[in-house]
Design a protein that fits this description.
The protein is mainly alpha-helical and about 220 residues long. It is built from ten helices and three strands; from the N terminus they run βααααααααββαα. About 60% of the residues lie in helices and about 10% in strands. A three-stranded antiparallel β-sheet has the order 1-2-3. A hairpin with a 2-residue loop joins β2 and β3.
Length: about 220
């Protein structure tokens, strides 16, 4: 299922959401400019579980150990990766920012990404593969959207064999199905040590964190 848009207008200009999208693209274009130095950049600023836990008993400075928790959420592994993430953020982020307020939304987004990184870290402690991408933070945005706008309609493109159909799906069904897929995929990776390049548990962690943080960050009474 591919979301095309939601039928849920916001009442304020979502400039934080646009700034986050812009920031991700700026970093991505910088990645493209690095050429042969890109791998080193990803290794340095991506979140590598093995390196983090190795640092506990070794002389690795605090910046090296903790900065990737934040920098990793602005890195992406390719065009499909960043376009997919930014498309979801574009569709769902404006309404969440509208309800939480601009400053609260920025803090909410970053904390969702941090929670996602922690969960992914704990789910793959021996992995030496860098975890990168905004999907953990965006999962938190989806969790908040589910809580605040469960009956909002999401215009969705659905492939049916060789054909496509476009239908309106309630947000609680669209996001609920999305989360189920992340959770089931995460369960399938337990004990394997690899997740096929996708940080499923970061999605799960960010989503749950987003739901739990809504009461803390909400600006005003919810509608539907």
């Amino acid at each position: 299922m591919i979301p095309l848009k939601d039928r849920n207008p916001s009442h304020t200009f979502p400039f934080i959401n646009y700034l986050l999208i812009a920031a991700n693209f700026v970093v991505f274009f910088y990645e493209l400019s690095l050429g042969q130095h890109l791998d080193g950049f990803i290794i340095r600023y991506g979140l590598i579980p093995h390196r983090y836990f190795y640092a506990v008993g070794h002389n690795i400075n605090l910046l090296t150990r903790y900065i990737p928790f934040f920098t990793s959420m602005f890195l992406h592994g390719g065009w499909m990766h960043i376009i997919g993430n930014m498309w979801f953020l574009f569709i769902f982020g404006d309404n969440v920012e509208d309800r939480l307020g601009h400053g609260h939304y920025l803090a909410f987004y970053l904390l969702s990404g941090l929670a996602a990184a922690v969960v992914q870290l704990l789910s793959s402690v021996s992995s030496s593969v860098p975890t990168i991408g905004a999907s953990g933070a965006i999962s938190g945005v989806l969790g908040a959207y589910l809580v605040m706008f469960p009956r909002a309609k999401v215009v969705t493109l659905i492939p049916i064999f060789f054909f496509f159909d476009i239908i309106d799906i309630p947000a609680f069904l669209f996001i609920g199905f999305w989360f189920l897929m992340q959770f089931v995929s995460g369960l399938q990776t337990l004990g394997i040590g690899t997740s096929g390049g996708i940080a499923w548990w970061a999605h799960v962690g960010g989503f749950v964190a987003g739901i739990l943080m809504v009461p803390v960050f909400k600006k005003r009474k919810f509608g539907t």
